[in-house]
Amino acid sequence: MSWITNIEAKPDLTFKDENPKVKDPSIPNRMVSTKRANKPFLAYHNYRERQKKLHDEWLERKKEREEKLAKGEEVGPEEPDPTLEEEVGLAGLLKFFVYVLLFILLSGKLISGDFLWGYDGKWSHLKTYWPSEQRLYSDRGLLQFDGSDPEKPLYLAIDGDVYDVSSNRRVYGPGGSYHLMAGIDAARAFGTGCFKDHRTHDLRGLTDEELRGVAHWKKFFKDHKSYPHVGRVSHETIDPASPIPVHCDPKK
Q: Is the pTM of the predicted complex or chain greater than 0.85?
C-alpha cells in the first residue's frame, strides 16, 4: 500500500510478512520479524551479547589468576579486557591525518598525473618552509635584482621584506607596469600611489589610510602563492631632519 493513499497510516490487512521471526531482544515473549528494517537493531543486539560473553569470560579468567596469585603460584602477565574500547588519542588522530594526506596525494597522481593536483605555488616548495636563500640585502645590492639582467632573479621589497617576483616578469620586469617597484623598497609608493616620486621605504608623514594601504600590500606579498620571501633589506638610516617626500597629488 502506498503511503500516498494511506495518509492516516492505517494498517494494511492484506500484507503478509514472509521473513522468519526471532525473539525480540527488548520485549520478553514477543517475536520480531527479520526484515531489512529490523536487521541493524538485531545485529547490534547480537554484538552486545557477544561483548557481554567475552567480558564475562575475561572476568572469570581474571578471578582464576587472582586466586593463583593468592596461593603464590606463578602466573603470566595480566590479560587486558578484550571488550575495552580504546580511545583514539593524539597518535590515532595523527595517523588518521597521515592516511588522509596520502589518499589525497595518491588520488592527485592517479587522476591528474601530479601529486599536488597541478598546484605549483610557493607552498608546494620546500624553501617556503625551510628557506635556504634568506639573506640580508643592502639598498645597493638589491638594485642588482631589478630585472635588467635576465640571468638573475627579480626581487621586490616592501617595508624591509624582500620577495622573489620572478614568476611575474611581465608585470615587474623591464617594460612592465610595476617595473618601478622592482629592485627597491618602495613601501611609500604602495601607500600613496606615487610610483615615480615615492620609490622609498620612508614612511614618515603618511596618513592612517595610506599606512593601511602599505599594510594591505605587505599582506598581499606575504600570502601570495608565487612570491617566496627571500630576505630582508638593511636600509640606510633616514635623517629625521630631512624633508618628507612631497606627494604627487598637490591636494594631499
A: no
- CA 28/CA 26 separation, integer angstroms: 7
The set of cell numbers assigned to 126 is 620546500
| Helix segments in 4-134, DSSP class H | 39-70, 89-111
Residue pLDDT, tens place only, 197-230: 999 999 999 999 999 999 999 999 999 989 999 9
Instruction: Give the torsion sign (CA, 122, 127, 128, 131).
Output: negative
The DSSP code for 96 is H
Rounded distance between C-alpha atoms, residue 105 and residue 97, angstroms: 12
pLDDT tens-digit series, residues 44-77: 888 888 889 989 998 999 898 888 888 888 888 8
Q: Which residues pair with 182 in a beta bridge?
A: 156
Backbone angles phi, psi at 156, to 5 degrees: -140, 140
* Cα 183 from Cα 186, distance rounded (Å): 9
Which H/E stretch holds residue 213?
A: helix 208-223
